[in-house]
């Protein structure tokens, strides 16, 4: 098995990175808390496939330069992946601008090892897959059986089931934590599902005071994917998913408040590898909140409610946009022959499904379910309105206008018309032609003052 060293004292992400690297690219990871520990290890075991570290190493006495100097002195040609550093800033390193870009890390590691996507898909793994015990602390109930391993002989082991599927995890682990056990095991067939579920622990990083807006964008993108996949499994919002969702919603609000313009926000969104659904949702949230600020009856409470609604409004479409990445809006799905009838039904009913879903959300904002249900202009949440009437809520109308503009902005960007994005007046004529009722006109006029 390939071997990498991860230099990090961040326990929130260490175990998550370790288990992802093992599961997807077959890399065993040794974690060292500082550069001195990593160098001491390489003095004894110089043959490693990569060294992974965070840019923070560079803030104390040029630590990364010291690492590169050590490698040169020992004539070790070991690739160094720096997380959180712009590409090209540090010579002879592979840099990932976002320290939470797990997908980018896996791609970089696969390139180093010359592993293809096909190789990863066909990779053989043992029957039992190791999971750091601390990673189990992030879940309340196990999605699969959990095993404890004991040595039965030379390189022979026995596995004993200690927690069954669906049972609580927390208290059951205390005995093993007290005994200093560092690793437990699950059936390898569940490894990717387990990793996806526990990826929610990375959202704890949102509490960091030094987190950048770009990193918030990456984390909330991962969070939306986690929420969408969990919802497809259970069709309800659990307390755990509610906490992840709320953290993401608050993070999105923080990002749009810090963004001085749509152009600035787009720059961050384009650097993120998130799908269309996420980019569109964040952009629509910026526009909707901007409209509310400039409308006579707008309030902070309504901004919060719209932010909540826009996080969930297309949640059932997230997996579809991942599966069909060239789709640019909901209607694209309906005219494709490779989209199944079942998937097209989800598209037609996604507003109704999402409105029904948020009713299970603990402490759901009052009226948010109706706003979501009506976000395509249909009172029952089924299909898409052709003629927009006055029989839906005012906040639903704001979302409709914000989504329309967001779709137009992303289309202009895709077509290479970036210079036209910041011209508010260029959107107004089309909006006035499409939304002719008086209440929509007030919303359209409020949009004129939104900073693009």
Please characterize this protein's 3D structure.
The chain is α/β, with parallel strands linked by helices and 452 residues long. It has three domains: 2-122, Rossmann fold (3-Layer(aba) Sandwich), CATH 3.40.50.2300; 128-192, no CATH class; 212-447, Hypothetical protein af1432 (Orthogonal Bundle). Helix content is 51%, strand content 11%. The chain has helices at 11-25, 35-44, 63-73, 102-113, 117-122, 170-178, 191-198, 213-234, 239-258, 262-271, 276-293, 300-312, 318-323, 330-334, 341-357, 368-373, 394-414, 425-434, 438-447; strands spanning 2-7, 27-32, 50-54, 80-83, 94-96, 128-132, 146-153, 156-163, 183-187. The strands form two sheets. Strands 2-1-3-4-5 form a five-stranded parallel sheet. Strand 7 (146-153) and strand 8 (156-163) form a beta hairpin. The termini are far apart.
Summary?
By secondary structure, the protein is α/β, with parallel strands linked by helices. The chain has 19 helices and 9 strands.
**At the first level of CATH, what is the class of the largest domain?**
Mainly Alpha
CATH fold naming of the largest domain:
Hypothetical protein af1432
Strand tally: 9
Indicate the proportion of strand residues. Answer: 5-15%
CATH architecture title of the largest domain: Orthogonal Bundle
Q: Overall mean pLDDT score?
A: 88
Major β-sheet annotation:
5 strands, parallel
In whole angstroms, the N-to-C terminal distance is 51 Å
How large is the count of helical segments? Answer: 19
Question: What does the overall shape look like?
Answer: globular
Structural class: alpha/beta
Question: Largest beta sheet: what is the strand line-up?
Answer: 2-1-3-4-5
Q: In the residues, how many domains can be counted?
A: 3
Low-pLDDT residue intervals, each spanning 5 or more residues: none
CATH superfamily (homologous) name of the largest domain: Hypothetical protein af1432
The radius of gyration is: 24 Å
SSE topology string: EHEHEHEEHHEEEHEHHHHHHHHHHHHH
Q: Identify the quaternary structure here.
A: single chain
Helix content: 40-55%
């Amino acid at each position: 098995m390939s071997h990498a060293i991860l230099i990090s004292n961040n326990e929130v992400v260490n175990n998550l990175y370790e288990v992802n690297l093992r599961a997807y690219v077959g890399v065993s990871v040794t974690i060292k808390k500082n550069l001195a520990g990593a160098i001491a290890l390489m003095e004894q075991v110089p043959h490693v496939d990569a060294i992974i570290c965070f840019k923070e190493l560079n803030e104390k006495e040029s630590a990364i330069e010291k690492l590169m100097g050590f490698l040169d002195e020992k004539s070790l040609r070991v690739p160094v992946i720096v997380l959180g550093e712009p590409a090209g800033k540090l010579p002879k390193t592979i840099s990932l601008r976002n320290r939470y870009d797990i997908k980018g890390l896996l791609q970089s590691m696969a390139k180093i090892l010359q592993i293809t996507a096909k190789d990863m898909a066909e990779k053989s793994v043992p029957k039992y897959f190791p999971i750091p015990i601390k990673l189990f602390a992030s879940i309340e109930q196990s999605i699969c059986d959990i095993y404890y391993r004991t040595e039965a002989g030379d390189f022979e082991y026995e596995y004993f089931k200690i927690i069954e599927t669906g049972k609580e995890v927390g208290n059951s682990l205390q005995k093993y934590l007290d005994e200093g056990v560092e690793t437990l095991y699950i059936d390898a067939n569940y490894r990717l599902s387990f990793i996806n579920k526990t990826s929610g622990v990375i959202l704890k990083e949102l509490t960091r005071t030094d987190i950048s807006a770009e990193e918030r964008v990456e984390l909330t993108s991962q969070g939306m994917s986690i929420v969408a996949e969990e919802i497809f499994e259970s069709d309800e919002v659990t307390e755990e998913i509610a906490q992840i969702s709320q953290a993401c919603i608050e993070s999105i609000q923080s990002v749009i408040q810090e963004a001085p313009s749509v152009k600035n926000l787009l720059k961050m969104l384009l650097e993120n590898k998130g799908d269309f659904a996420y980019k569109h949702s964040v952009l629509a949230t910026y526009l909707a909140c901007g409209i509310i600020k400039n409308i006579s009856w707008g309030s902070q409470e309504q901004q919060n409610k719209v932010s909540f609604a826009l996080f969930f409004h297309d949640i059932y479409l997230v997996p579809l946009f991942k599966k069909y990445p060239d789709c640019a809006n909901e209607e694209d799905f309906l005219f494709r022959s490779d989209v199944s009838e079942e998937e097209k039904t989800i598209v037609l009913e996604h507003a109704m499904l999402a409105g029904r879903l948020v009713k299970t959300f603990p402490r759901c904002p009052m009226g948010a379910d109706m706003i979501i249900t009506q976000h395509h202009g249909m009172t029952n949440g089924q299909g898409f309105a052709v003629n927009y009437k006055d029989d839906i809520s005012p906040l639903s109308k704001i979302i409709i206008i914000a989504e329309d503009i967001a779709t137009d902005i992303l289309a202009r960007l895709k077509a290479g018309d970036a210079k036209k994005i910041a011209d508010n007046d260029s959107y107004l004529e089309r909006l006035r032609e499409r939304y002719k009722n008086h209440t929509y006109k007030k919303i359209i006029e409020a949009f004129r003052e939104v900073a693009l």
